[in-house]
Design a protein that fits this description.
Elements (H helix, E strand, L loop, with lengths): L11 H8 L4 H4 L11 H8 L43 H13 L4 E4 L2 E5 L10 H8 L10 H15 L3 E6 L6 H15 L4 H21 E2 L7 E2 L15 E4 L4 E3 L35 H9 L2 H7 L23 H15 L3 H17 L4 E5 L5 E5 L2 H11 L3 H9 E5 L4 E5 L2 H4 L24 H32 L12 H8 L5 H10 L6 H11 L6 E3 H6 L11 E6 L2 E6 L3 H5 L5 H9 L3 H6 L16 H17 L2 E8 L12 H11 L1 H8 L5 E4 H8 L14 H11 L7 E3 L3 E4 L2 H81 L7 H19 L3 H17 L6 H4 L15 H6 L9 E8 L6 E8 L3 E6 L5 E6 L3 E6 L6 E6 L19 H4 L2 E4 L3 H16 L4 E4 L2 E6 L2 E9 L9 E5 L4 E6 L1
Parallel strand pairs: 2-15, 3-6, 3-15, 23-26, 28-30
Antiparallel strand pairs: 1-2, 4-5, 6-7, 8-9, 10-11, 12-13, 13-14, 16-18, 17-18, 19-20, 19-25, 20-21, 21-22, 23-24, 24-25, 27-28, 29-30
Helix pairs in contact: 6-7, 7-8, 8-9, 8-11, 9-11, 12-13, 14-22, 16-17, 16-24, 18-19, 27-28, 31-35
């Protein structure tokens, strides 16, 4: 439970009182509101100063409060639905899109149309978590998202049994391919479960690599541009509804066990960019599959396909861009093979597809040369027969049949058959005779030089705009009819006149183009333009140089070979050059028949018109007629389904994240007709909402409906709007919904709601703070009484305890005094002290008896050191825990030094390396000091020979400082001999007494002087004089030298000594 600061939750009465100010679903929670984990947020809001937070910020858990049925305006970035945009002009639309884009809100609505601005980066708004989130909500409950549109389409498919169509539009690089992937992944994630359904899901997801390999290519604007923008393929199940993506795939409804058809079964003809196979612009590539095949196929497969891995050996591949950054063609080929197997292709079918791909590459390398027949008529022939021979071997045709099909043309009438030789220009594949340009039917194109390709693309866009307007108005009219609201005619621009201008039978531009291509005589682009000028001279949406001159208009941008059409998205000028050539179909009957004769199943299925039984003497349809037929099929499919729209926008030309080019976006908004879309949506009533959600949101604006309303939802809405005095012309009451005409009215309601929320927030805070203060006072009062009573009782307990303890103490003393008085006669005086001393001595004796002789000796040495240096020498405390070792130079391993001590001296008590200070100049030299029971021997460290032997009876005393240094002075008696005769050192004789005292430095001065003190005591039965002082005198020959020790700045253990001679009778030693 979430407790308040006072330590308790509010009482049920206050909880219910607070709940009365909250929305209805919260009131139904009652007391359980405070058990919600979000109650702490409510508490923080209640304590906020001056109602800084609104009730919208104090939301409970998603499951506890029913979401509203419209986008919340507070907290949103800009306007989430452009239908509510005010004012509705191009500038405000662009500003709103830019504001949302800069805040990484890339999706915006126009009613149920989604506008998607390509972010050129990965945003954390996708994946299973968001799919589950949008699956549980309706379209307007959450932020705009492509998942919301996919969910709406899927729910309409599942619940209403209506086929769906999702149209994804936009120019290259605007993110259409990614949008289609997101829709497909969403539908695959939310559809049913089961082994066969999961198989279909996997086929659906694995279709993307195959579609991109055979339908995508690198363009100047996009490294992975879809060049199959008009393709529609079905993945469906018998008698089941399906979802169709105009730039993706039809998805089966997944309502039962499905049987998936292959993704490539029914391409719409003539909507693929066929011209890219034979020629690409500078900086572009052919379709990915060609590069993937050469890079990813193993050596055995390449050998079977008669291919080489080097891309430079193929004329159809642009040599300038063999690779694309960030794209691995080899690994992509492996992914394509695996995906085709998942989709349902057998190994044999995969091999046939790759063989056809290889044939296309090899066909581009066939070289044709000029030849002349015997009668002098120009003809053509194959230069290198090897290439044609390899192609014939792969397809099962002889090289002669293949060459005849490539270099000749058969014209057949009812009575005769004529074989005509083709020249090199007629045989040329693709460079001179492009069948179709870039057919991105979802990207309206206005280029500097617009040709036949842009003409058919923009024609298809006109048809799509017509579908959008008609179906949108139809949907609006149906909703008005369901709600019982009179339908008034909506004024809008009907582009049917433009569509008729292009496609009208016998009198349209396409019909005139076909007529010009089929008529005998001299045919050229100029005659075609002249026919258009004559036929459409008075048409309001057609212009040319001739029509302008007739109207006395001058336009320098209009060329003599151009005409202009006023499309819905703007005026476009087309150059008629090559219109005739591009409209003609150059796939002659000879080639179709040759391919049908091939012993290759896939090739035979691709050219059914080559079957002699189905041979037709009619001329093949023109490209324009085929395109018109394909558009008609597309329109029929769209009209038979419920449309859903995604408008994709490219924010900049450089594919950089965070950059927003207003001019570029404005151009795309014009091509996509966004403003026109908004106007159509707002033609009648801009906003509509169910009575229940509307009343739930705005009932706080009326005293009649707030805080409780027991009537019907419609009556409550009428009460609220009646008290706000909104014009009746702005409102319409349907059967289940309230309709609002102007966005300004909706904004007025939102503003009134915001102000009312501020008032209610202040009221709730006032009630809560009053309850909190009263509760706090009552708690403090109870606490004060409790503390006072506890304190008084505790004081009395303490006072009673002290009195009791005092009484017991007095009683104990009295009883003790009486007992001692009675028994004193039985004990002598101070018997307790004697007994304690006896016990202590007994304990000490018991401890001593447990010690070994060596331990006793060590303790005696420590005791002696304590008596000599405790409280006198600064280095003494450090030496206490360290046991005395005695041998610090490894005497056992040096036989020469062992000989110096002599045989009668016994063991060496101390062996250490010391430093001897020269009393004359203060210089130092290293010596080894050996202390035996009778002598102090100083030897040379290098020669191991005795330099000086001093008898312990000649040692008069020792002077040592109180600092932490190891300096000490060894004072000798005035007349002495070395005493070395008894040690076998007869040659080492010196007059020590005449040479004077010794000034030495030892690192173990405490141990050395202690052992020397005990040795002198044992040898001479006298105590060695140990003087602790910083000033002492040293005898040097006949003179006396005063030694003074000075504490340096960093004196301490192991301190360094610096000796300096001060005159002839003084030596200063500095301890650093």
């Amino acid at each position: 439970m979430c407790l308040l600061r006072g330590g308790r939750a509010p009482p049920p009465s206050l909880q219910l009182q607070l709940c009365s100010f909250l929305p209805t679903p919260t009131k139904k929670l009652g007391v359980s509101l405070w058990d919600n984990v979000h109650a702490r947020r409510l508490q923080e809001w209640l304590l906020a100063p001056k109602a800084e937070l609104t009730l919208a910020n104090c939301s409970l858990s998603p499951g506890s409060v029913a979401p509203l049925d419209m986008p919340l305006l507070e907290g949103s970035v800009g306007v989430e639905d452009l239908v509510l945009l005010e004012p509705l002009v191009k500038e405000s639309l662009l500003k709103n899109l830019q504001l949302r884009y800069e805040n990484k809100e890339i999706y915006t609505y126009i009613g149920n149309v989604v506008i998607s601005v390509n972010p050129y980066q990965q945003l954390p708004i996708y994946g299973p978590e968001y799919i589950a989130k949008y699956q549980d909500h309706t379209f307007y409950e959450l932020k705009p998202h492509i998942y919301a549109l996919a969910n709406m389409a899927y729910q309409s498919l599942r619940d209403r049994d209506r086929d769906q169509c999702i149209l994804i539009t936009g120019e290259s690089g605007s993110g259409k391919t990614e949008a289609s992937k997101l829709v497909m992944s969403y539908v695959a994630a939310v559809c049913g479960k089961g082994e066969q359904v999961n198989s279909v899901k996997e086929q659906l997801l694995q279709s993307n690599p195959v579609l991109e390999a055979f339908g995508n290519a690198k363009t100047i604007r996009n490294n992975n541009s879809s060049r199959f923008k008009g393709r529609m393929s079905d993945v469906k199940e018998t008698y089941q509804p399906r979802v169709m993506l105009a730039m993706g795939t039809e998805l089966e409804g997944s309502l039962g066990i499905s049987q998936a058809l292959r993704m490539f079964s029914n391409y719409l003809p003539d909507l693929l960019e066929k011209s890219r196979v034979v020629k690409q612009l500078k900086g572009e590539r052919n379709f990915h599959i060609f590069y993937q095949l050469l890079a990813g196929a193993d050596a055995q497969l390449l050998k079977a396909l008669k291919l080489e891995r080097d891309t430079t050996g193929y004329a159809y591949l642009n040599q300038e861009v063999p690779r694309v950054d960030g794209m691995d063609d080899a690994s992509s080929f492996s992914a394509v093979q695996s995906a085709m197997a998942v989709i349902g292709f057998s190994e044999e079918e995969i091999r046939q597809v790759l063989e056809v791909t290889a044939l296309v590459l090899k066909l581009g390398n066939v070289m044709v040369a000029d030849e002349f027949q015997a009668n002098g008529i120009p003809a053509s022939g194959i230069c290198d027969g090897r290439g044609v021979q390899e192609i014939g071997e792969m397809v099962g045709l002889s090289s002669e049949e293949l060459e005849r099909a490539l270099c000749s043309r058969t014209m057949e009438t009812a009575k005769e058959k004529v074989v005509t030789a083709l020249n090199v220009i007629q045989v040329g594949i693709g460079e001179k005779k492009k069948v179709m340009g870039v057919l991105d039917i979802y990207g309206f194109e206005i280029l500097e030089d617009n040709s036949f390709e842009q003409f058919v693309i923009n024609y298809c866009n006109e048809k799509l705009q017509q579908v959008f307007i008609e179906m949108t108005l139809k949907e609006e009219q149906e909703e008005y009819k369901r709600e019982g609201i009179p339908w008034t005619k909506v004024d809008y621009f009907d582009n049917g006149i433009i569509c008729n201008l292009i496609e009208q039978n016998q009198r349209g531009i396409l019909a005139m183009l076909d007529e010009e291509c089929l008529r005998p005589g001299v045919v050229s682009d100029s005659t075609f333009l002249a026919k258009l000028n004559k036929l459409f001279s008075k048409h309001s949406h057609y212009e040319s140089k001739v029509t302008q001159n007739a109207q006395h208009q001058y336009d320098h941008t209009m060329g003599l070979s151009c005409f202009r059409i006023c499309h819905y998205a703007g005026k476009v000028t087309y150059n008629v050059t090559s219109f005739i050539d591009k409209n003609n179909d150059l796939l002659f009957r000879d080639l179709s028949q040759a391919m049908w004769k091939a012993q290759h199943p896939l090739l035979r299925s691709l050219f059914p018109e080559g079957n002699p039984k189905q041979a037709s003497l009619k001329r093949p349809r023109t490209a324009g007629a085929q395109f018109k037929s394909s558009v008609a099929i597309l329109m029929k499919n769209l009209y038979s389904k419920n449309p859903n729209y995604i408008r994709c926008i490219k924010p900049n030309e450089h594919q950089q994240q965070g950059q927003f080019s207003s001019d570029l976006v404005a151009t795309q908004a014009q091509y996509l007709g966004l403003l026109e879309n908004v106007r159509v949506r707002r033609a009648g009533y801009a906003h509509r909402q169910g009575y229940g959600p509307f009343l739930e949101r705005y009932r706080l604006l009326s005293r009649s409906t707030w805080p409780r309303w027991n009537g019907g939802d419609r009556e409550g809405v009428e009460k609220v709007l009646g008290e706000l005095s909104i014009s009746s012309g702005e409102l319409a009451f349907g059967k289940t919904k309230i309709f609002i005409r102007s966005p300004k009215t909706l904004f007025y309601l939102e503003e009134q709601r915001r102000l009312r929320l501020q008032q209610l927030a202040t009221l709730i805070q006032k009630i809560y703070r009053g309850w909190r203060c009263r509760t706090h006072y009552q708690l403090m009062r109870k606490s004060q009484i409790l503390i006072s009573s506890w304190f008084r009782g505790n004081m009395q307990k303490k006072r009673y305890g002290k009195i009791k303890a005092s009484v017991l103490l007095i009683q104990a003393f009295v009883r003790g005094w009486k007992a001692r008085k009675n028994y004193r006669k039985y004990f002598r005086s101070e018997a307790a002290l004697t007994l304690a001393d006896f016990i202590f001595k007994s304990m000490c004796k018991r401890f001593r008896d447990q010690l070994s002789l060596k331990q006793v000796e060590i303790l005696r040495e420590k005791l002696c050191a304590s008596e000599l240096f405790k409280g006198k020498k600064a280095s003494y405390p450090q030496s206490v825990p360290i046991p005395f070792c005695g041998d610090y130079i490894g005497l056992q391993g040096n036989p020469k030094l062992q000989k110096l001590k002599g045989g009668e001296e016994g063991p060496v008590l101390m062996a250490e390396a010391v430093t001897k200070v020269n009393r004359g100049n203060g210089k130092t030299s290293s010596r080894i000091l050996l202390l035996t029971k009778g002598h102090v021997i100083l030897t040379d460290t290098k020669k191991s020979q005795a330099k000086t032997v001093i008898g312990l009876d000649n040692v008069a005393g020792v002077s040592v400082t109180s600092l932490k240094d190891g300096l000490f002075g060894l004072h000798l008696s005035e007349v002495s001999e070395s005493g070395g005769a008894g040690l076998g050192l007869e040659k080492v004789m010196s007059s020590v007494g005449s040479s004077g005292d010794f000034l030495l430095v030892s690192e173990h001065v405490i141990e050395l002087l202690t052992k020397m003190y005990r040795a002198v005591l044992d040898a001479t039965q006298r105590q060695l004089a140990v003087t602790v002082t910083e000033k002492f005198s040293m005898r040097f020959k006949e003179k006396s030298v005063a030694v003074r020790i000075v504490q340096g700045p960093a004196g301490g253990a192991n301190s360094k000594l610096r000796c300096k001679k001060k005159g002839s009778h003084s030596l200063e030693v500095t301890v650093q």
